[in-house]
Amino acid sequence: MRRKKISFVRLKQEKLCIKGLEELEAKPISSPYDIKDLMMPFFKDLDREMMLVLGLDTKNKPTVISVISIGTLNQATVSTREIFKTLLLANSIRFIIIHNHPSGDTTPSENDLKFTRKIKEVGELMEVYLLDSIIYGDDLRSLRANDWRGISIGRI
C-alpha cells in the first residue's frame, strides 16, 4: 500500500488598505471611548454593515484588527470560526467586536444580542475573553455596559 504525502497550502488573506491607518499606534484600550478614534477610518461613510474584531494582548494593546465580514445594508453574515482563527493566530487573550449600523441607529437588534452572547460563551471556552461588543453609527454603543441592551457612549 502506497502512502500519499499530504501537503498543506496556506492561502494569504487579502488586506484592506485604508488611508491613515499606517499611523495607528498600539495604545492600550481602557474603555469604549478609546475605540472611537481607532475605528473611525474603517466605518466612516460606509453604506453597508461591516464587522471587525480587535484582538488585545494581556495589557489590552491591540494585536490585530481584522475585517470579519462585509455585508449588506442591514446585515452581515459572520462566522464564529473566522473571529477566533484571527484571534488565535494573533496571540490575543481578549477581544472586542465592532460592527456598524449604516442607518445610524445604534439600537441593538435581537440578532446583535444573540450573537454577542454566543461569541462571549465561545470565547470563554477558548480562554479568549470578550471585553465588549460595540455598535458604530451616529453614536457609539457598548453592548457590554448596562445589561446587553447597551448604552450610548457619545456622538461621533
UniProtKB/TrEMBL annotation:
One example of a Gene Ontology biological process annotation: proteolysis
Single GO term (MF): metal ion binding
UniProt-listed InterPro entries: MPN (IPR037518), RadC_JAB (IPR025657), UPF0758 (IPR001405), UPF0758_CS (IPR020891)
Keywords: Hydrolase, Metal-binding, Metalloprotease, Protease, Zinc
All copies of domain MPN, residue ranges: 28-149
PANTHER family assigned: DNA REPAIR PROTEIN RADC, UPF0758 PROTEIN YEES-RELATED
Annotated family: Belongs to the UPF0758 family.
Protein name, per record: MPN domain-containing protein
Lineage of the organism: Bacteria, Bacillati, Bacillota, Bacilli, Lactobacillales
